[in-house]
Design goal:
Helix 2 runs antiparallel to helix 13 (398-425), helix 11 (352-363) packs across helix 15 and helix 12 (365-389) runs antiparallel to helix 13 (398-425). This protein has 15 helices and 2 strands. 33% of the residues are buried. The longest helix is centred in the first third of the chain and has 31 residues, at 90-120. By secondary structure, it is an all-alpha fold. Strands 1-2 form a two-stranded antiparallel sheet. It folds into 2 domains: 2-167, no CATH class; 278-469, no CATH class.
C-alpha cells in the first residue's frame, strides 16, 4: 500500500518516467511472447525459436537498466532524515522502490499480454487479415506456465536489480568497512583505533565525575567562575580549531568556507557546495580495461573480415564477436573518457566557465559516463549488426525493428535520466553560484559546454568504432 501511495503521489516528471518504464516492459514482454508463439507455431524448428528467445536478452537488459536508473532518480523513495523513527529506514525504502518498480513493470507485462491476445484473435477477430501468424501461433492454445514465466521475467528481474542497486551501504570510513570492527565499552561501536585495556570494564566508574556518583567535589577541585569561564572558552576554541582542520583547504590553502569580502576582509561566506569536491580529480579505473577490450574487439572484427569467418549465415557467431567486444569496450571506457573530457576542458588557462564545466564533468564522470558509454556501444553495435545481417538490402522484420527501438530508446532514456539526476545532485552548487552574484545564464552555458565537449569526443569515436566493427566479411 505504501508503494502504491508513493507511486500515485509522485510528480508528473516521475510519473512520465514510470510510464516509459511500463512501455519498455510492454515491448519486451511482447517480444518474449512472440518468441513463445514462434516456438508453438513451428515445433519442428527449435533452434530458430531458441535464437529468437536469446535475442530478447538485449531488450530485457536495456529495460532493467532503464528501470534501475528511474528508481535511483526517484526522489520520493529515497531515504530521508526522520523517516527511520517511523519504521521507514534505508532497507524499507529500498523495498518500497523494488515493489514500485515491480508494479510498474507488471503493468507493462499485462499490456503486452492483452496486445498479444488481441493480435492472435483471442479477444476479438484476427486483425490485419491474419498476417503475422507465424510468430503469433493463432488458433493454438498458449501454455499457461510458459506464458506466466515469460511475463514475470521483466518485473522480477527489474525488482531484483533495483534492490541490489539501492541496498544500504556502509560509508567508506565506517568501522564495519575496515578490516576489524572496533567496539567501545559494553559493545558500543566506535571509530577510534585505540584498544581498551584489560581492566577497563572493572574501572567503569573511575572516569565519572564525583558529582555524578552522588558526592560533592572537594574544595581543592572547585573552580571559580572566572576559571570555569576560561576553561569553557578554551574548550570552544579547541573544538572550533578541530572542525576547521577537518575541512579541505582551498586552492591557496585558505578556509573553503570563507572568501574575501568586497573590502578584502574574510567577511564573505562561501558555501562548500559552490566548489566541486576535491576528490573529483580521481579518474575512474575502467578506462584501461575498456581500451583493451575495445582493441580486442576491433582486432577480432578485422580478422573476421579478412578470413571470411561468418560469411555464411550459419557462421555468424564468429563475426559477431568483434562488434560485441567493441561495444563492451566502449561501455567500460565511458566513465574514464568523460573524466578525460572534463580534464581537457580545464587545460590551457581555463576561465571560470570552462573550469566549472570541467570540474562538474570530472565529478559526474561515473554517473554520466557509464550511460553515455552504453549509448555509444548500442549505436555502434546496431550499425555493425545491421551491416553484417542485412548486407543484401533486405528489410528488417517488425520484431527486429521493435527490438532495436527498445534497446536504443531505453539507453537514451537512461542517459537523460542520469543527466536529470546529476542536475539534482549539484543543484546546491548552482544555487550557491547564483547567490554569489553569477549570471543566471552561467549554469545553462556550462551545461551546453559540457554537452558540446562530450559530443565532440564521443561522436567521432562512435562513428569510427561502428565503421571498423561493421566491416563485412570477405566472400
Amino acid at each position: 500500500m505504501l508503494a502504491l501511495r508513493l507511486t500515485r503521489g509522485a510528480r508528473p516528471a516521475v510519473q512520465l518516467r514510470r510510464l516509459l518504464v511500463a512501455a519498455a516492459s510492454a515491448g519486451t514482454g511482447f517480444l518474449l511472447l512472440c518468441a513463445l508463439g514462434h516456438a508453438i507455431g513451428r515445433p519442428g524448428a527449435p533452434p530458430d525459436s531458441l535464437l529468437r528467445l536469446v535475442w530478447c536478452a538485449a531488450p530485457l537488459a536495456a529495460t532493467v537498466y532503464f528501470a534501475v536508473a528511474v528508481a535511483r532518480a526517484d526522489p520520493g523513495t529515497g531515504p530521508r532524515p526522520g523517516l527511520s523513527a517511523l519504521g521507514l529506514g534505508p532497507v524499507r525504502m529500498m523495498a518500497v522502490s523494488a515493489t514500485a518498480t515491480a508494479l510498474t513493470c507488471a503493468l507493462g507485462s499485462v499490456t503486452a499480454l492483452l496486445v498479444f491476445l488481441h493480435l492472435r484473435g483471442d479477444l476479438t477477430g484476427t486483425p490485419f487479415d491474419g498476417s503475422g501468424t507465424d510468430f503469433l501461433a493463432a488458433g493454438r492454445p498458449l501454455p499457461l506456465p510458459a506464458t506466466l514465466t515469460l511475463l514475470t521475467l521483466v518485473p522480477g528481474s527489474a525488482s531484483v536489480a533495483v534492490a541490489v542497486a539501492l541496498r544500504p551501504r556502509e560509508p567508506a570510513g565506517s568501522p564495519s568497512r575496515s578490516g576489524r570492527t572496533a567496539y567501545g565499552r559494553f559493545g558500543a561501536y566506535r571509530a577510534t583505533a585505540v584498544r581498551e585495556t584489560f581492566g577497563a570494564y572493572g574501572r567503569f566508574g573511575r572516569h565519572l565525575e564525583p558529582a555524578a556518583r552522588g558526592r560533592r567535589p572537594s574544595a581543592a577541585r572547585q573552580r571559580t567562575p572566572e576559571e570555569a569561564r576560561a576553561h569553557l572558552q578554551a574548550q570552544t576554541q579547541t573544538q572550533t580549531q578541530t572542525q576547521q582542520d577537518r575541512l579541505p583547504a582551498g586552492p591557496s590553502g585558505q578556509d573553503p568556507e570563507r572568501t574575501p569580502g568586497p573590502d578584502g576582509t574574510a567577511s564573505g561566506l562561501r558555501p562548500a557546495a559552490a566548489v566541486p569536491a576535491s576528490g573529483s580529480g580521481t579518474a575512474p579505473s575502467g578506462l584501461p580495461w575498456g581500451i583493451a577490450v575495445l582493441a580486442v574487439g576491433l582486432a577480432a572484427g578485422a580478422y573476421a573480415s579478412r578470413t571470411g569467418v561468418g560469411a555464411v549465415p550459419g557462421e555468424r557467431p564468429g563475426a559477431l564477436a568483434g562488434p560485441v567486444l567493441a561495444a563492451v569496450g566502449l561501455a567500460l571506457a565511458g566513465p574514464g573518457l568523460t573524466h578525460l573530457c572534463g580534464r581537457l576542458l580545464q587545460s590551457v588557462r581555463p576561465g571560470a566557465l570552462r573550469l566549472l564545466a570541467g570540474r562538474l564533468l570530472m565529478t559526474e564522470a561515473t554517473r554520466i559516463g557509464r550511460p553515455l558509454g552504453v549509448v555509444c556501444a548500442v549505436l555502434s553495435g546496431a550499425y555493425a549488426l545491421g551491416s553484417l545481417y542485412y548486407t543484401d538490402g533486405r528489410p528488417a522484420g517488425p520484431l527486429a525493428l521493435l527490438g532495436v527501438l527498445l534497446v536504443i530508446g531505453c539507453t537514451v532514456a537512461t542517459l537523460l535520466t542520469a543527466a536529470v539526476e546529476a542536475r539534482q545532485a549539484h543543484a546546491g552548487t548552482t544555487a550557491a553560484l547564483l547567490r554569489l552574484g553569477a549570471p543566471s545564464s552561467t549554469p545553462r552555458r556550462a551545461a551546453a559546454l559540457r554537452a558540446g565537449a562530450l559530443l565532440a569526443l564521443f561522436g567521432p569515436l562512435t562513428v569510427i568504432v561502428a565503421h571498423l566493427s561493421g566491416l563485412s566479411p570477405a566472400p
